[in-house]
Amino acid sequence: MKKISILFILIIVIANMHAQERKQPLAGKPPVVNIKKPLSFTLANGLKVMVVENHKLPKVTFNLTIDNPPFLEGNKKGVDELCSSLIGNGSTKISKEDFNEEVDFMGASMSFSSSSAYASSLSKFSKRTLELLSYGALDPKFSQEELDKEKAKATEGLRSQEKSVSSIASRVVNALAYGKNHPSGEFTTEESIANITLEDVISNYKRRFVPQNAYLVIVGDVKFNEIKPIIEKLFGSWQKTTTNDITYPDPENVALTQINFIDVPNAVQSEISVVNTYNLKMNHKDFFPAVIASYILGGGFNSYLNMNLREAHGWTYGASTGIGAGKYVTSVRSSSALKNNVTDSATVEFIKEIKRIRTEKVDTQALENAKAGYIGRFVMKAEKPESVARYALNTEIEELPADFYENYIKNVNTVSAEDVIAAANKYFLIENSRIIIVGKGKDVIPGLEKLNIPIYYFDKYGNPVEKPTFQ
């Protein structure tokens, strides 16, 4: 009898466990994220400074950003990239060796580019860290020897990517989507690197590394009243420079869906990208519906594209969608690397899933899961100093409401299934998209031609060519 009673109890316990497993857990309350507001001041030269005090840990980060609009580099494309490589590589105020030695001694980290500078350190070294940051950013030492080294590295990098399908795709997708006469569409070549002189690099720095478009965001264990005079001393003499910003016409999408094919005879797989351009600012009402629609389509493991191409068919390790938003024209790109023999079938599935999110109301649970995933990413980033700095910077540059990030989670949660469809129809323009495929033409073109989608051929640099003769 005792054994029977124990067995009976076990059966009841197991039954209850299974019942609980079948029951969908209730959603908890949305997390509350406390985004600290910066204290701000502006120098006479235009540099805007934002300080977010956080004394939980004895650390501090410095983020200097130059908010310049995109610009064409033409036959010297790569000059801005080389400028990035040389800034911080020595200063007129301190030798390269002493600079690096001090950074290592403090356990700090520091990096520079043609439009930014970053440093982090323990707060007890904050003053010296900021001094070194200003030396590297405002008094860089450009030398022919260092330029020659960076040009050689850049050239070697281009040569190593010559037969890489993913590298070719990355280059050609932007060239075709934006046009090579647009800043977002031009790309670096060996010839353009060879054209660049030291004077070009110096001129690029003087013309674009200017305080009137600059923001310095400081986050961490510092006191506003103590750091302010240090900043005024270090950055107050930074001279304004007259800038002539050039605007470019927005690229136009194609009139009808088309395949743009780039033949890489040695390719063992195809890279498919479905892309179109548009304008979407972060302060626009469509921002949250558009990013949630993108997340559902290709932003997470359970997204439409990934569940179709990877889980259902086993054609790829992953498929994704990336969506842009900001002050300038941007694009949405759905992409994946797949086996050659399924390139035509995968193209059909890409189109099907994009049409699906434009016409089929997303399942309630799928929508809630997408929101939860997106919010989860936001919450995990929100406490990081670099995120706090980015939020403060975005609020200024993107002209966001002061409470944009405080209301971020609430705005995500208000997105409805109808909002998703509306945003998908407005920004995922499948009827006006380029399906850019980089792959082995001999293996994939016969199948693609059966899809009755116009096919146009281009070389590895985005130049139109006749249909190749496949051997």
What would you note in describing this structure?
The protein has 471 residues and is of the alpha+beta class. It has two domains: 39-235, Cytochrome Bc1 Complex, Chain A, domain 1 (2-Layer Sandwich), CATH 3.30.830; 258-465, Cytochrome Bc1 Complex, Chain A, domain 1. The protein has 17 helices and 13 strands. The protein has helices at 2-22, 79-86, 96-106, 126-138, 144-160, 165-178, 190-195, 198-208, 224-235, 287-298, 304-312, 343-359, 364-382, 385-397, 408-413, 417-427, 441-449, and strands at 39-42, 48-53, 59-66, 109-113, 116-122, 214-220, 258-263, 269-278, 319-323, 330-339, 434-439, 455-458, 464-465. Strands 9-10-8-11-7-12-13 form a seven-stranded mixed beta sheet, with helices on both faces. A hairpin with a 5-residue loop joins β1 and β2 (48-53). The longest helix has 21 residues, at 2-22. Residues 49-182 form the Peptidase M16 N-terminal domain. Residues 1-19 form the signal peptide. Residues 195-373 form the Peptidase M16 C-terminal domain. This is Pitrilysin family protein. InterPro entries: Metalloenz_LuxS/M16, MPP/UQCRC_Complex, Pept_M16_N, Peptidase_M16_C.
In angstroms, what separates the terminal alpha carbons?
A: 81 Å
Q: Tally the helices.
A: 17
CATH architecture title of the largest domain:
2-Layer Sandwich
The secondary-structure element order is HEEEHHEEHHHHHEHEEHHEEHHHHHEHEE
The CATH top-level class label of the largest domain: Alpha Beta
| Poorly predicted parts | 1-15, 17-27
Strand order in the largest sheet: 9-10-8-11-7-12-13
Per the CATH scheme, the topology name of the largest domain is Cytochrome Bc1 Complex, Chain A, domain 1
The major beta sheet can be summarized as:
7 strands, mixed
- The radius of gyration computed from the alpha-carbon positions, rounded to a whole number of angstroms, is 26 Å
- Estimate the helix proportion, in percent: 40-55%
